[in-house]
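My current task is to audit a protein record that another person submitted. Please read both lines and tell me whether the tokens look consistent with the sequence. Do not assume that whoever made the record got everything right. I have pasted the whole thing underneath without changing anything:

===
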Amino acid sequence: MTTPSWISRAGLCAAALGCLAVPGLARLAVSPAAAAAAATQQGVQVLEQTHSYLFNDWLHFQAEFAVNVRIMNAFVFYEWEGSGRHWVYEGELSENRLLDVNVPLEAANQPPPFTEVRYWFRFADLRGLVHESQVYSFFYDDNRYAWNSYQDGPFTLHWYAGDAGYAASILAAARQGVLRTQALLPGAQLAAATLRVYEEAADVQLIAGRSGITWQAGHTDPAAGLLLLALPPGPNQSLEVQRQVPHEVAHLMLYQTLGPEPYARLPVWLNEGIAAQAELYSDPEAAALLAAAAGQGDLLPLAALCASFPQDAASARLAYAQAGDFVRYLVETYGQTGFRLLVDAYLHDGECLGAPQQDFGTDLNGLQAAWQTARFATRPQGAQAWLAAVPWQTILASAGAALALFLVLRLSGRK
């Protein structure tokens, strides 16, 4: 997320120190105990404070305080782990010693979802002194929905629509995803996973920061151990559970087993292809989609799917279908041992095109050519198919032998 260091008039004031000579206004917060002691000694004591927010919309902070000096300006600061900076907003001061701060949220200043947010208050008095409160915190959840929560082994499930049976089906699919991933890659493990289930894909896209990719229904944030799933109600919901849940579980298992850097070296087509093998239910139209693309010469070069997949829906769907079928072909052709050799080659060689060369004697283009020949070689149709099916060589050989025998017998008869 790209974030400015300072937001609003208060931010400009704190950055330039031009609207009030306030020494140290831009310094970072001190420890809670030291800050509280300093605030009391310098004449400001926060008696009560509150926070509230609406996810993806606004933050609101209030602080009731007691003072023995006149306060000219008051601000709220907030930050979160890994932000590397903080945001500051000036609030309104009322006669009854109340600070009120409203913060409209935009892409730049919004905390990441499901993050601990730290905040504190600063007061500037007439003497130019700064009084700072202790540090407070809250968990920035998606409070647009009333979440249900359940924990089962390594899985923590959050959902807001559907009964206990629905939740059980999601957890069952997650456990199957673990088993299917381990069947393909023995040794793969899952430490912990948090699943958040929405009804609308737009929610997943919003939280994943991929609002322009309207076809995306699932997303994994592996570093956070978070799986986001969009499972719309309807007749296909149970099938989507069986497709999406194991798929995203496989991604997280790869990350947790391999570690961040090796995981990043996996080509996207390989990562997605492995996840596709974990699915209990896959796109039923994938085979027809691949056959049509092959017949029209529209299959995508796998070398172009090393770093990312296309963003338009049609090309992305084809890319997922290719990745899934290509990985299935590799396992069928080279067995699990051969497939693990390929995975290992990519873990130790970041060169997407050439990594298979040492173990397979060909590069990625060669493997794709073999896959296309095996899966989509042109087969004769109609009369051509009948002609191709007839064992003409055997028939001709038999006819030739019979003719030779006939001639021999005829010549013998003449004698």
Remarks:
- The radius of gyration is 32 Å.
- The first helix runs from residue 8 to 16.
- The longest strand covers residues 44-54.
